[in-house]
Amino acid sequence: MDCMLEIGALLMEVRSVRWRRDTIPRNFRPFVRQARSVDGAARLRVESRTDLPDVSGQAPLSTSYNDLGQASLYSTPQGWVVALTPQPGQPPRLMRMSPDLRDAVVWLPRDDPHYDFVMDSMARIFFSQHAAGRHSLMLHASVVELDGRGYLFMGESGIGKSTHSRLWRETFGDCRLLNDDCPLVTADGRGGFLVSGTPWSGKTPCYRKATCRVAGIARLRQAPYNRFTPLEGVEAFVNFIPGMSVMTSARQLYSEATTTALALLEGVPFGILECRPEGAAAQLLNAQLNEELKMHNA
Question: Cα separation of 202 and 181, whole Å?
Fold first, then answer.
Protein backbone atom coordinates (compact mmCIF):
# COMPACT_ATOMS: atom_id res chain seq x y z
CA MET A 1 0.00 0.00 0.00
CA ASP A 2 0.91 3.69 -0.23
CA CYS A 3 0.26 6.20 2.54
CA MET A 4 0.81 9.93 3.03
CA LEU A 5 2.18 11.21 6.33
CA GLU A 6 1.67 14.80 7.46
CA ILE A 7 4.33 15.77 10.00
CA GLY A 8 4.19 19.40 11.03
CA ALA A 9 4.02 21.41 7.82
CA LEU A 10 5.77 18.71 5.75
CA LEU A 11 4.47 15.70 3.85
CA MET A 12 6.10 12.33 3.23
CA GLU A 13 4.60 9.70 0.94
CA VAL A 14 5.59 6.11 1.76
CA ARG A 15 5.10 3.81 -1.23
CA SER A 16 4.82 0.05 -1.67
CA VAL A 17 5.04 -0.89 2.00
CA ARG A 18 3.68 -4.25 3.07
CA TRP A 19 1.36 -2.64 5.62
CA ARG A 20 -2.43 -2.59 5.37
CA ARG A 21 -4.70 0.02 6.86
CA ASP A 22 -5.08 -2.10 9.99
CA THR A 23 -1.36 -2.94 10.32
CA ILE A 24 0.26 0.48 9.96
CA PRO A 25 2.57 0.84 12.99
CA ARG A 26 0.84 2.81 15.73
CA ASN A 27 3.43 5.58 15.79
CA PHE A 28 2.55 6.48 12.18
CA ARG A 29 -1.24 6.27 12.48
CA PRO A 30 -1.94 9.77 13.87
CA PHE A 31 -0.01 11.29 10.95
CA VAL A 32 -1.73 9.47 8.06
CA ARG A 33 -3.82 11.73 5.84
CA GLN A 34 -5.97 11.06 2.81
CA ALA A 35 -3.86 12.36 -0.08
CA ARG A 36 -1.76 11.05 -2.93
CA SER A 37 1.24 12.38 -4.87
CA VAL A 38 1.27 15.92 -3.52
CA ASP A 39 3.84 18.20 -5.17
CA GLY A 40 6.70 18.93 -2.79
CA ALA A 41 6.15 15.85 -0.63
CA ALA A 42 9.11 13.65 0.23
CA ARG A 43 8.76 10.21 -1.35
CA LEU A 44 10.09 7.06 0.29
CA ARG A 45 9.69 3.92 -1.84
CA VAL A 46 10.27 0.30 -0.84
CA GLU A 47 11.64 -2.26 -3.29
CA SER A 48 12.51 -5.92 -2.85
CA ARG A 49 14.87 -6.18 -5.83
CA THR A 50 18.40 -7.45 -5.34
CA ASP A 51 20.31 -4.90 -7.47
CA LEU A 52 21.47 -2.93 -4.44
CA PRO A 53 24.00 -0.09 -4.51
CA ASP A 54 27.52 -1.40 -4.03
CA VAL A 55 29.39 0.53 -1.35
CA SER A 56 31.56 -2.36 -0.20
CA GLY A 57 34.77 -0.72 -1.42
CA GLN A 58 34.08 2.68 0.15
CA ALA A 59 34.87 4.07 3.54
CA PRO A 60 31.76 5.58 5.15
CA LEU A 61 31.58 9.33 5.59
CA SER A 62 30.22 8.71 9.10
CA THR A 63 29.00 5.88 11.32
CA SER A 64 26.71 6.20 14.32
CA TYR A 65 25.49 3.77 16.96
CA ASN A 66 22.15 4.45 18.65
CA ASP A 67 18.60 3.13 18.89
CA LEU A 68 18.67 2.68 15.10
CA GLY A 69 21.47 0.15 15.39
CA GLN A 70 24.58 0.93 13.34
CA ALA A 71 23.99 3.46 10.57
CA SER A 72 26.73 4.31 8.06
CA LEU A 73 26.52 7.07 5.44
CA TYR A 74 28.08 6.94 1.98
CA SER A 75 28.20 9.36 -0.95
CA THR A 76 27.64 8.03 -4.50
CA PRO A 77 27.06 9.73 -7.87
CA GLN A 78 23.38 8.74 -7.58
CA GLY A 79 22.93 10.22 -4.11
CA TRP A 80 23.43 9.40 -0.46
CA VAL A 81 23.39 5.77 0.71
CA VAL A 82 22.54 4.72 4.26
CA ALA A 83 23.58 1.23 5.40
CA LEU A 84 21.61 0.24 8.49
CA THR A 85 22.55 -2.81 10.56
CA PRO A 86 19.74 -3.48 13.09
CA GLN A 87 21.78 -6.00 15.10
CA PRO A 88 25.46 -7.05 15.12
CA GLY A 89 26.33 -9.80 12.67
CA GLN A 90 23.43 -9.10 10.31
CA PRO A 91 23.75 -7.85 6.72
CA PRO A 92 23.03 -4.12 6.34
CA ARG A 93 19.77 -2.85 4.88
CA LEU A 94 20.29 -0.10 2.33
CA MET A 95 18.54 3.14 1.45
CA ARG A 96 19.53 5.60 -1.26
CA MET A 97 18.43 9.24 -0.98
CA SER A 98 18.42 11.47 -4.07
CA PRO A 99 20.86 14.41 -4.12
CA ASP A 100 17.99 16.87 -3.58
CA LEU A 101 16.61 14.70 -0.74
CA ARG A 102 13.13 14.58 -2.24
CA ASP A 103 13.14 10.87 -3.04
CA ALA A 104 14.52 7.76 -1.39
CA VAL A 105 14.32 4.03 -2.00
CA VAL A 106 14.75 1.29 0.60
CA TRP A 107 15.70 -2.21 -0.54
CA LEU A 108 13.82 -4.50 1.86
CA PRO A 109 12.24 -7.93 1.31
CA ARG A 110 8.64 -8.15 2.49
CA ASP A 111 9.51 -11.11 4.72
CA ASP A 112 12.42 -9.36 6.45
CA PRO A 113 12.09 -10.13 10.19
CA HIS A 114 13.06 -6.53 11.03
CA TYR A 115 10.79 -4.96 8.41
CA ASP A 116 8.89 -2.51 10.63
CA PHE A 117 12.01 -1.52 12.58
CA VAL A 118 14.00 -0.86 9.40
CA MET A 119 11.16 1.10 7.79
CA ASP A 120 10.71 3.20 10.92
CA SER A 121 14.43 3.94 11.14
CA MET A 122 14.91 4.68 7.44
CA ALA A 123 11.84 6.93 7.36
CA ARG A 124 13.21 8.88 10.30
CA ILE A 125 16.67 9.27 8.71
CA PHE A 126 15.26 10.35 5.35
CA PHE A 127 12.62 12.70 6.76
CA SER A 128 15.11 14.48 9.03
CA GLN A 129 17.40 15.23 6.08
CA HIS A 130 14.50 16.25 3.82
CA ALA A 131 13.28 18.62 6.56
CA ALA A 132 16.70 20.23 7.03
CA GLY A 133 16.59 21.54 3.47
CA ARG A 134 13.15 23.06 3.99
CA HIS A 135 13.61 25.51 6.87
CA SER A 136 12.92 22.78 9.44
CA LEU A 137 15.01 20.87 11.95
CA MET A 138 14.54 17.50 13.60
CA LEU A 139 16.06 17.84 17.04
CA HIS A 140 17.18 15.36 19.66
CA ALA A 141 15.06 16.81 22.45
CA SER A 142 12.09 16.32 24.73
CA VAL A 143 9.35 18.93 24.43
CA VAL A 144 6.32 19.85 26.53
CA GLU A 145 3.35 22.04 25.72
CA LEU A 146 2.13 24.53 28.31
CA ASP A 147 -0.46 27.26 27.68
CA GLY A 148 -0.09 26.76 23.93
CA ARG A 149 3.69 27.17 24.02
CA GLY A 150 6.42 24.62 23.43
CA TYR A 151 9.48 24.25 25.67
CA LEU A 152 12.34 22.06 24.43
CA PHE A 153 14.90 20.30 26.58
CA MET A 154 18.11 19.21 24.86
CA GLY A 155 21.17 17.32 26.02
CA GLU A 156 23.15 14.11 25.75
CA SER A 157 21.41 10.75 26.03
CA GLY A 158 20.77 9.93 29.67
CA ILE A 159 21.17 13.51 30.90
CA GLY A 160 17.56 13.71 32.10
CA LYS A 161 15.48 15.21 29.26
CA SER A 162 12.56 12.85 29.85
CA THR A 163 12.83 13.36 33.60
CA HIS A 164 12.68 17.12 33.19
CA SER A 165 9.61 16.85 30.96
CA ARG A 166 7.97 14.71 33.66
CA LEU A 167 8.82 17.34 36.28
CA TRP A 168 7.10 20.02 34.19
CA ARG A 169 3.98 17.86 33.87
CA GLU A 170 3.95 17.23 37.62
CA THR A 171 4.61 20.87 38.48
CA PHE A 172 2.20 22.52 36.02
CA GLY A 173 -1.17 20.78 35.94
CA ASP A 174 -2.12 21.62 32.35
CA CYS A 175 1.29 20.72 30.88
CA ARG A 176 1.41 17.90 28.28
CA LEU A 177 4.22 16.00 26.62
CA LEU A 178 4.41 16.77 22.89
CA ASN A 179 7.35 14.52 21.95
CA ASP A 180 10.09 12.83 23.94
CA ASP A 181 12.90 12.38 21.43
CA CYS A 182 12.58 13.82 17.90
CA PRO A 183 10.37 16.91 17.60
CA LEU A 184 10.26 18.94 14.39
CA VAL A 185 10.95 22.69 14.56
CA THR A 186 9.86 24.77 11.57
CA ALA A 187 10.14 28.45 10.65
CA ASP A 188 6.67 29.97 10.31
CA GLY A 189 7.74 32.46 7.64
CA ARG A 190 7.10 35.44 9.93
CA GLY A 191 10.19 35.29 12.08
CA GLY A 192 8.79 32.78 14.57
CA PHE A 193 9.14 29.03 14.99
CA LEU A 194 6.72 26.17 15.56
CA VAL A 195 7.40 22.79 17.15
CA SER A 196 5.46 19.69 16.13
CA GLY A 197 5.14 16.12 17.29
CA THR A 198 6.47 13.37 15.02
CA PRO A 199 6.13 9.59 14.71
CA TRP A 200 9.45 9.20 16.51
CA SER A 201 9.49 9.64 20.28
CA GLY A 202 12.23 7.35 21.56
CA LYS A 203 11.18 4.90 24.26
CA THR A 204 8.15 7.00 25.21
CA PRO A 205 5.01 6.23 23.15
CA CYS A 206 3.96 9.84 22.54
CA TYR A 207 2.84 10.26 18.92
CA ARG A 208 0.85 13.48 18.88
CA LYS A 209 -0.08 15.25 15.67
CA ALA A 210 0.02 18.66 17.32
CA THR A 211 1.89 21.93 16.84
CA CYS A 212 2.57 24.93 19.06
CA ARG A 213 4.83 27.97 19.10
CA VAL A 214 8.37 27.58 20.48
CA ALA A 215 8.76 29.62 23.66
CA GLY A 216 12.21 28.52 24.80
CA ILE A 217 14.98 25.93 24.63
CA ALA A 218 17.30 24.72 27.37
CA ARG A 219 20.29 22.43 27.22
CA LEU A 220 20.38 20.37 30.41
CA ARG A 221 23.33 19.63 32.66
CA GLN A 222 23.19 17.71 35.92
CA ALA A 223 24.28 19.70 38.97
CA PRO A 224 23.73 19.84 42.76
CA TYR A 225 21.93 23.17 42.30
CA ASN A 226 19.47 24.84 39.92
CA ARG A 227 20.75 27.65 37.71
CA PHE A 228 19.79 28.91 34.25
CA THR A 229 22.33 30.78 32.13
CA PRO A 230 20.99 32.48 28.98
CA LEU A 231 23.23 32.17 25.92
CA GLU A 232 23.38 34.12 22.68
CA GLY A 233 25.47 34.21 19.51
CA VAL A 234 28.32 31.77 19.09
CA GLU A 235 27.91 30.28 22.58
CA ALA A 236 24.26 29.48 21.90
CA PHE A 237 25.03 28.00 18.50
CA VAL A 238 27.86 25.77 19.77
CA ASN A 239 25.60 24.34 22.46
CA PHE A 240 22.66 23.90 20.09
CA ILE A 241 24.19 22.17 17.04
CA PRO A 242 24.89 18.77 18.72
CA GLY A 243 21.13 18.27 18.87
CA MET A 244 20.49 18.76 15.14
CA SER A 245 19.70 15.66 13.05
CA VAL A 246 21.46 16.64 9.82
CA MET A 247 24.30 15.21 7.73
CA THR A 248 27.41 17.30 8.32
CA SER A 249 28.97 15.76 5.18
CA ALA A 250 26.34 17.39 2.94
CA ARG A 251 27.78 20.91 2.85
CA GLN A 252 24.82 22.68 1.23
CA LEU A 253 22.31 20.90 3.46
CA TYR A 254 24.33 21.63 6.58
CA SER A 255 24.62 25.29 5.53
CA GLU A 256 20.83 25.51 5.16
CA ALA A 257 20.31 23.82 8.55
CA THR A 258 22.80 26.23 10.12
CA THR A 259 20.88 29.21 8.71
CA THR A 260 17.67 27.85 10.23
CA ALA A 261 19.38 27.23 13.57
CA LEU A 262 20.81 30.75 13.73
CA ALA A 263 17.39 32.26 12.98
CA LEU A 264 15.83 30.08 15.67
CA LEU A 265 18.41 31.12 18.28
CA GLU A 266 17.97 34.76 17.30
CA GLY A 267 14.23 34.65 17.91
CA VAL A 268 13.82 32.15 20.75
CA PRO A 269 15.32 32.16 24.28
CA PHE A 270 18.08 29.58 24.69
CA GLY A 271 20.39 28.71 27.55
CA ILE A 272 22.00 26.15 29.84
CA LEU A 273 20.01 24.72 32.75
CA GLU A 274 22.19 23.20 35.47
CA CYS A 275 19.76 21.39 37.68
CA ARG A 276 18.69 18.78 40.15
CA PRO A 277 15.83 16.39 39.27
CA GLU A 278 13.20 18.33 41.22
CA GLY A 279 10.16 20.49 40.63
CA ALA A 280 12.04 23.61 41.65
CA ALA A 281 14.18 23.25 38.53
CA ALA A 282 11.06 23.22 36.35
CA GLN A 283 9.69 26.30 38.11
CA LEU A 284 12.99 28.14 37.71
CA LEU A 285 13.32 27.33 34.01
CA ASN A 286 9.72 28.25 33.24
CA ALA A 287 10.10 31.63 34.93
CA GLN A 288 13.48 32.36 33.33
CA LEU A 289 12.45 31.38 29.80
CA ASN A 290 9.27 33.42 29.98
CA GLU A 291 11.23 36.42 31.22
CA GLU A 292 13.69 35.98 28.36
CA LEU A 293 10.80 35.65 25.91
CA LYS A 294 9.38 38.99 27.05
CA MET A 295 12.76 40.60 26.40
CA HIS A 296 12.94 39.00 22.92
CA ASN A 297 9.48 40.31 22.06
CA ALA A 298 10.05 43.78 23.50
Answer: 5
